[in-house]
Amino acid sequence: MESNKIKDFLENNAIIILLFALVVYVGLTQDGFLTMTNFFNIASNVSPRFLIALGVSGCLITKGTDLSAGRLVGLGGVLSCTLLQRVDYADKFFPNLPELPIIVVFLAVILLTGFFGLLNGIVISYLNVPPFLTTLGMQTIVYGINLVYSGATPLGGLRRDYTQIASAGINIGLPQPIKYLLIIAVVVGVFFWFLYNKTRHGKYMYAIGGNEHAAEVSGVNTVAAKLRIYSLAGVMYGFAGFLLAAKSGGASVNLGLGYELEAIAACTIGGVSTTGGIGTVPGILLGVLVFELLKTCMQFLRIDTSWQYIVQGLVIIIAVALDIRKYTAKK
Amino acid sequence: MEEYILQMKNISKSFPGVKALDRVNLNIKPGTVHALMGENGAGKSTLMKCLFGIYRMDEGEIIFNGEKVDITNTADALSRGIAMVQQEQTPILDRSIAENIFLGRFPTKKYGPLEVIDHTKLYAETDRLLKEVNMDFDSRVKLSSLSVSQMQSVEIAKAVSADAKLVIMDEPTSSLTENEVEGLFEIINKLRDNGVSIIYISHKMEEILQISDEVSIMRDGVYVGTWPAKELTTDLIIKRMVGRELTNRFPPRNNVPGEVIFEVENFTSIDPKSFKNVSFNLREGEILGIGGLVGAQRTELMEAIFGIRHIVTGKVTYKGEVLKIKRPRDAITKGIALLTEDRRATGIFGVLSVADNVGIASLDNYLDYNFVLNNKALEKVVNENIEKMSIKTPSSKTQIKSLSGGNQQKVIIGRWLANNPDVLILDEPTRGIDVGAKYEIYSIIVDLAKQGKSIIMISSEMPELIGMSDRIMVMCEGKVSGFVEGENATQENIMSLATKFM
Question: How many angstroms separate the CA atoms of B253 and B317, rounded?
Fold first, then answer.
């Protein structure tokens, strides 16, 4: 019995354990890995990705998915940049645009991406198109819209008050200030934890993932719940795009490419089940952290970027395979 | 000829934490129908899965057709002449009968170096098999156009096609009507006459006594014994199955029906093949049984009342108020509950906890500031219900799928009780539940009626319908064919109403 339990534990957490071992190895062999700077660096990379993963988690828990995530991040980033360039910047996208309040731009961005999320939800709920295909189509549409809008121009020259959202923070006496990015991630994480555990919406979401028909019979308005889930997902992508553009000081149409897969992989590593009804916010955070640590470790080990893609892809497949195994092996 | 076609000796099988089979014996004579009985969890299915190669036994030996065999997979079992008609069939709905029967072993012919499927032979062979199981169907017909019982006949034809010497039938009648059961029994008798042995697993006593030659009983993974069916009675079987005297199958009905509070008028489905012009009423504290054959549209009617299906005409009046029910939520807020027929498909949330399964329909009642769930209050109600209905679960956080069928059913009843409904519609509330748990559910139903709640209970089991109902409404082909007062109800008068328009 005991050895079985240990085996189960190892099997259920295989990826996390392996990556933990990798972190220890890299920490011991490479200089600069176990430092405060690197820690803050990882933390600010994790922040926007955590938002994307939280967004897609609702879709996954209800047995859906959202492949338009990455492209919506891109649209959110590009839109933010076009509206928040310095007035004196030579290559200004809208040369006559006055200085807009950041909050207005932020709201416009999340409303727009939230609207595309809502469209996903409408197609999935009312037209019964499978989420995989709906959001695959949306992915392409959004990319097209982004190309039409920005004309594929790389956007730079962002206002300082905008980029500071990503670079600055609150000084509490540590060697580095606590970045706003980190604070935003914590606030959004708490919001999602509350939503998933303390509201009807959360319970309905898990119920739809557990058994959609039973949820309907139990009086759950499954259509409304899915519209909320996909819209909120869209909002999170826009939010992440807004932050990512600020962080890198610019954006192009390729911003966010492939982020949906990273987010889905992080969710799966963090215990969100692809068979529906299961997933927690702390788990998702762990998943995002683990995936980000994997990438950082590979960079520190100076593994060729081409190979990094191969490893990331493998980790995604293995994570899902191990997840499915949990549910099939016990029959 | 050997005395036994199959001998299973001292079979043991353990799963983590439980000993599912403990030195079980089973001997089957050739050309007999052998009933295997026991409560859910007694180990019947596990034993059969060991025989059929789905599980590996830990200890014991199997002697089939005079030789010791070691069956490692289902294909192996089939090639030796052992076939199984599963409780839950897994047909390929979009393919033809012929393809379903011969899947994996299509007859072939050669075109030079190529081996291709011989369709002429495939269909001819299938037609012959279908005739053998009394099915008058074209072998090219898609499975999806067949009824559940017809699909089952296809499964049996598949078993016959494999030249099976032993056919295992796991609860073959659980979704059949009485007529269809008769049809199945004809097929079984035909197989028996041809020298095939049948292991027949069922919970339905009346059937067992009618069809089987011998009965073996298991209890808690242990073999109790084998008796000729002629020497057994329902009471004797139950006693040996549960290991104790069960004096009454139904609790005393001491509820007192009051005034009419719920009226259904002129319900007609949007689907012309479904229910038509159905009207009935329901008294406070009454248990109204709904009888009829499968296909009588009873489930469809109740789902329409509950807002799951669409109607062209129909009015529901509750305590003088006309209800507008467009979706389940409307019915729920008015105090109506529906326990659906198919627990797995529309009842349980398998991966969610017992607590979440209980709470889902009544979350509106546990909100602070109209928004934040009061998890403490919710937990209290959940625990009250677990206790009230003596649900056996390690904790309220246990996933519901790990509970037995009877306990799952009690959890879902608890879900509706948490909402404190006045009208409960129960669709086959004891399907697939063992004898002991059935009695508990009956007690809960009577108790609810005693508290003044009105119950509508669809049941396809005649004794249950007669034993539990104050009044029985019988449906046939989507129409109400008559009402029978509880005390006057007999199998005969219900059957004649159930077939009135056929």
Answer: 27
